[in-house]
Specification:
Layout: E1 10-14, E2 25-27, E3 34-38, E4 51-53, E5 61-63, H1 71-74, E6 85-87, E7 108-110, E8 117-119, E9 132-134, E10 139-143, E11 155-157, E12 165-166, H2 169-176, E13 182-184, H3 192-195, E14 210-212, E15 234-236, E16 243-244, H4 248-251, E17 259-261, E18 266-270, E19 283-285, E20 290-292, E21 307-309, E22 316-318, E23 331-333, E24 338-340
Parallel strand pairs: 1-3, 2-4, 3-5, 5-6, 6-7, 7-9, 8-10, 9-11, 10-12, 11-13, 13-14, 14-15, 15-17, 16-18, 17-19, 18-20, 19-21, 21-23, 22-24
């Protein structure tokens, strides 16, 4: 058991020992700016053991991850008027601390891997300073429209939830969050209506570079608004029951795309020759679909390509000999197709 009294600016304590260390700590000093108790077994405190905090007005960083905490424990930290980073990941929170809504300077909030459920907590509604928000690995099922009002957001992770509804659609959310750089909504229960079809956004330009919408249940086509995300470098929509052809009118607008992963869907038709216009591509994964026709000769234009996977489709004809000219190509999968003829000499192998 520890009593912690200090006049230093930072407290760091973390342990992986079993049984966990028990704490009774009284934090009362004025200059404290950072507290870190990671994996310290704080959930094992008895009812008479508690956190007593006074004068945390200068505290900027609070890290209490991996402690199995429930909401009443963290309520002791509600008077942090200058807090900028809160990490409560890997705990047992089933409700969001009510006082989060008063943290006007909060820039990063990590609530991933808890037991939160329902719609996203309204306590976050007024956190206009938020830059990073991680709510992954919970049980949220709905995304409210006000999330789009957090216009400073740059990193948003909602993966591994049960989200099946986005108020106003994902297109509306992206249309408001112009500075969002990374969005991960993989491993949810989204269907095509949640994506939306809006093509006119408020954003003059989009900062979005990374978009992961994989492992959902769309049963629809790629949304046309994807073509407006001109700064996108990674588009991941594997295992999402997407249908239709690969629309060159959308894909070829993504001139900065480096990673395109669309495997394990229900795409059909031929691969467009215009795919060769994506000259920045490094990884192209289109396996486990229903593509037919020939492999486009234009692939030779993808001079940065390192990984190409077209396996488990219905492609026919010969393997283009000019694929051997792709000097950066290190991985090539073409199995389970209907190809014939000679295998080209691959100069980089």
């Amino acid at each position: 058991m520890y009593n912690i009294h200090s006049h230093h600016q930072r407290i760091h304590l973390y342990t992986g020992y079993n049984p966990p260390i028990l704490f009774t700590f009284n934090i009362f000093f004025k200059a404290l700016i950072e507290v870190e108790f990671r994996n310290c077994g704080l959930d094992k405190l008895h009812t008479h053991q508690h956190v007593s905090t006074t004068n945390l007005s200068r505290l900027k960083n609070l890290y209490l991850a991996e402690n199995g905490l429930q909401t009443p424990f963290v309520d002791a930290f509600q008077n942090m008027t200058s807090i900028a980073v809160i990490e409560l990941s890997h705990n047992n929170l089933n409700s969001t601390p009510f006082w989060l809504g008063t943290c006007a300077n909060l820039g990063s909030l990590f609530l991933d891997s808890n037991a939160l459920y329902g719609s996203l907590p309204s306590a976050l509604n007024n956190l206009t300073s938020l830059v990073s928000l991680d709510l992954s690995q919970n049980m949220f099922n709905s995304v409210p429209g006000w999330l789009g009002e957090l216009k400073g957001l740059q990193y948003l992770n909602l993966s591994g939830n049960d989200v099946n509804h986005i108020e106003g659609s994902l297109a509306s959310l992206l249309g408001n969050c112009c500075h969002l750089k990374q969005l991960d909504m993989s491993r949810n229960k989204l269907q095509s209506d949640a994506l939306g079809n809006h093509t006119h956004f408020e954003c003059i330009r989009h900062d979005l570079m990374y978009l992961d919408l994989s492992h959902n249940e769309y049963n629809g086509h790629l949304p046309p608004w994807l073509g407006q995300l001109e700064n996108l470098t990674s588009l991941i929509m594997t295992d999402s029951k997407l249908v239709g052809t690969l629309p060159c009118a959308i894909i070829t607008k993504l001139v900065n795309l480096k990673n395109l992963l669309l495997s394990n869907n229900n795409f059909a038709g031929s691969l467009p020759d215009s795919i060769g216009e994506l000259v920045s591509l490094k990884i192209l994964i289109l396996s486990s679909n229903h593509f037919d026709g020939v492999i486009p000769r234009s692939l030779v234009q993808l001079v940065s390509l390192t990984d190409l996977d077209l396996s488990r489709n219905s492609l026919n004809g010969t393997i283009p000999q000019n694929i051997g000219q792709l000097q950066n190509l290190s991985t090539l999968y073409l199995s389970e197709n209907k190809l014939y003829g000679n295998i080209p000499v691959l100069v980089s192998f």
